[in-house]
């Protein structure tokens, strides 16, 4: 990997679900559990929908 690419996140996948407050806890758990595997999860909310993004670090 080139130096300029280090630190960039590569989007692997994303999925939208009906909003539920527990999804934030799931994403937090996944980030803590899979940090050593160079995988990171993100979550965003738009009205009554939540989108989970999966990134390779």
Termini distance?
12 Å
Largest sheet: 3 strands, antiparallel
Q: What strand line-up does the widest sheet have?
A: 1-3-2
Radius of gyration: 13 Å
Question: What percent strand?
Answer: 35-45%
* Count of beta strands: 3
Order of helices and strands: EHEE
In total, the number of domains comes to 1
Poorly predicted regions: none
Provide structural commentary.
With 57 residues, the protein is α+β, with helices and mostly antiparallel strands. It has one domain. 23% of the residues lie in helices and 44% in strands. The chain is built from 1 helix and 3 strands; from the N terminus they run E-H-E-E. The protein has one helix at residues 22-34, and strands at residues 10-18, 39-46, 49-56. A 3-stranded antiparallel β-sheet has the order 1-3-2, covered by helices on one side. A hairpin with a 2-residue loop joins strand 2 and strand 3 (49-56). It is globular. 0% of the residues are buried. The mean pLDDT is 91.
């Amino acid at each position: 990997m080139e130096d300029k690419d280090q630190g960039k996140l590569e989007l692997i996948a994303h999925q939208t679900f009906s909003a539920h407050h527990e999804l934030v806890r799931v994403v937090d758990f996944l980030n803590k559990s899979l940090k050593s595997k160079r995988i990171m999860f993100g979550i965003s909310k738009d009205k009554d929908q939540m989108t989970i993004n999966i990134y390779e670090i």
